[in-house]
Amino acid sequence: MEDKRLIGDLLSAHGLKKTPIRMEMLGLFMDHDFALSASDIVAKMTSKRDRVTVYRALSSFEESGILHRASEDGQGVKYALCGKNCPGEAHTHQHAHFICEECNQTYCLDDVKIPEVKLSDEFLVNRVNYTLSGICKDCKSLDPVA
Amino acid sequence: MEDKRLIGDLLSAHGLKKTPIRMEMLGLFMDHDFALSASDIVAKMTSKRDRVTVYRALSSFEESGILHRASEDGQGVKYALCGKNCPGEAHTHQHAHFICEECNQTYCLDDVKIPEVKLSDEFLVNRVNYTLSGICKDCKSLDPVA
DNA sequence: TTAAGTGCAAAATCTTTGCAAATGT
DNA sequence: ACATTTGCAAAGATTTTGCACTTAA
Question: What is the pTM for the complete model shown?
Fold first, then answer.
């Protein structure tokens, strides 16, 4: 992974320490184009780590704006890297997500803008979440049946 | 609640038994215009009931198409009644949901159609979930600050 | 009668909190 | 040095499973 410097910079830029665990965690997010849950991460980490540490790192990353909650499918919240579109604090993550029903992976569709709707003034809208689900490219090719 | 017959019919129509618990559960869903989690239901049930029974009834209702998963905010999946728009098995719940960040209640915006987007053909879309969040009418009136 | 639903006990997850020790800057 | 991060232990919450008992149809 040549992104090591990038990851380090990302951490420092947010006032976080470059510890092995956090470096590895962010590496995982960079290596996957879909969202990861705490459990996903623990499972993928080479060096065995404590779940608690992962939870706290995720919270920390979310607070710092490095990650955002991409989806909460079935059990467990999933996180994804904030792209360039993420406007600092105001986390109106204006892109859609796709969850594969087969492999349960969550993809960030960074290029798909969330269409707007107008709501009755009974509601004050702060955030929008647009999540599609179905079959992803990988599972489609494996599955002869549609 | 005069909907008793309605609820009973709903259960029979799906080949389910009209037990007191299930009747009461569906009554709760009819009495609220927002989604309920298993915990919400247990808390609201007059007669004290087992969580397990509630979980199993919810699964049963979801399978039958009486309820659908409306949102999964933070912890716990929430369910809502399927409206007339719900096309039987193919649960493309084409209406938006609103989650209040203050009281955590989930509203089904049955009248808000989900806008379509086109995805690359890498993805086969089966379902769409469009969830807005912010402050609901009740919390807005209580909160002088916006 | 008999399949569906219930209740209790128990376990598997997921997540949070507190505190002492270790680590990065 | 000092605030951050970690690890362990422990607890709370959510959800699932197994089995015997009850109940609606």
Answer: 0.74
